Amino acid sequence: MREVAVVAAGMTRFGELWESSLRDLFAEAAAEALHNANADHVDDIFIGNMSGGQFVGQEHLGPLMADQLGMSGVSATRVESACASGGAALRQGFMAVASGMSDLVLATGVEKMTDGADVTNVLASAADQENEVYHGITFPGLYAMIARAYMEAHGATEEDLAWVAVKNHRHGAMNPKAQFRREIDVDDVLRSTMVASPLRMLHCSPVSDGAAAVLLCPLDQAAKYTDKPVKIIGSGMATGPMALADRDDPAVLDSVAKSAARAYEMAGVSPESVQVAEVHDCFSIAEVCCIEALGLACAGEGGQAARGGVTALGGRIPVNTSGGLKSKGHPVGATGVAQAIEIFEQLRGEAGDRQVDGARVGLTQNMGGSGASSVVHIFEGV
Amino acid sequence: MPSPRYWREVPSRYRLEAVRCRGCGKVSFPARRICPKCRGQDFEQIALSRRGNVVTSTVIHVPPDEFLNEAPYAVALVETPEGARLMTQVVDCDPDTVLPGMEVTLEFRLIRKEGHGGIRCYGHKGVPVA
Description:
The complex is a heterodimer.
Chain A: E1 4-11, H1 22-37, E2 44-48, H2 52-55, H3 61-68, E3 75-79, H4 85-98, E4 105-112, H5 119-124, H6 139-154, H7 158-172, H8 186-191, E5 194-197, E6 199-200, E7 209-218, E8 230-239, H9 254-267, E9 276-278, H10 284-293, H11 302-305, H12 324-328, H13 332-347, E10 361-368, E11 373-381
Parallel strand pairs in A: 2-3, 2-4, 9-10
Antiparallel strand pairs in A: 1-7, 1-8, 4-7, 5-6, 8-11, 10-11
Helix pairs in contact in A: 4-13, 7-10
Chain B: H1 4-8, H2 10-15, E1 17-21, E2 27-28, E3 43-47, E4 51-60, E5 73-79, E6 85-90, E7 103-114, E8 119-128
Antiparallel strand pairs in B: 1-2, 1-3, 4-5, 4-7, 5-6, 7-8
């Protein structure tokens, strides 16, 4: 396998972007990445997208987006793994470059969620339709069940979970691309509307539009595009049972632990080496379970991590310095690539007020459904 | 949804039929072609007991459109004595009282109406044991 580097990134603002369509969003992010690398061609395009078909009635995004870039003719494929579609697209791009199949790959993610589709129903299609959704469960409902199981097992409280949202808003307030650039406090979270008990509105990531793109090439060709490449040193993906009912412990995300173990093994690093992480906080409880599964917190201690400042900027392991899905926004197919962009900037020392001093090793974890799929990447500054 | 779905789902939705793997004993609900534990394909058909305990739960306050008139309602993972777990609503009680450990019976109920024709879809819901 060849060593793979990220050499450029491009990203739209995340939010309710009324003026931009699915294809506009893609073109903006992809063109920015190409421009930043001064690249006039690519060998392959991967497009992470959960549900263009249901959100805006558009499938077959490969040729559509290649055409929108003025690159019709290039190999281009849409990649889907629900909310982990972006991470899965990045992994496809990594494999295309590592294998020697392609020398310059655009790995992207895009989602247009605010054009009037019934978002609750579309997102629910990432759960088990026959055995879960049939009975009236929603996505917040599934994570609420995970939260209740976790709270029962470890004595965590609603307030502990609220601190995850408070911490991520604090980070997101410093991110010009974030959907919600404002801080909130624990009372705001605990007073917000109940969505699916014990989760309230401010425990949940928002509905967003957005796109993100990175350019990948072999490390030994990176100098053509940038003087500050970032290596991808590990990539792991794993699946778990689709339905919550089929998991031994609803509070444990096995797919996350397995995807992390594979990425750590490939990278040859341990969780202790990770200095900054972007983790899939679609709901506050998800960040808690994920940092445990990633080995960034001990089992049962994830619930205290945000409250204790461990995962805040300046803490032992800053998590979601971008603001995370909660504050930055969660255009589902774009999220996994946007996570990689935050780590790319951190490891290049370009994260501004959000910079983690001296960060050299960073991690992204992107999750699909209620945790049925997970993709982890580990990055190292050069 | 095409109509064959409705009769195809009768065994699991109406009769709570499950399968027990003859290789490893794992109970799967609904029935599957391949055992998720040992990949065996030889099963014994069983009917689940119409009772169980809540493993975890939530109360849905923001529902999908089909359930707009029912919110807030409780949904729980219920484990039957055979070790099968199923997602069900728990009804006929204050939804906030549906918590892990609660004992419920599983009763045949209307779950939802689908499509413009309002096709009635049945299944089971939990009811707390008094």
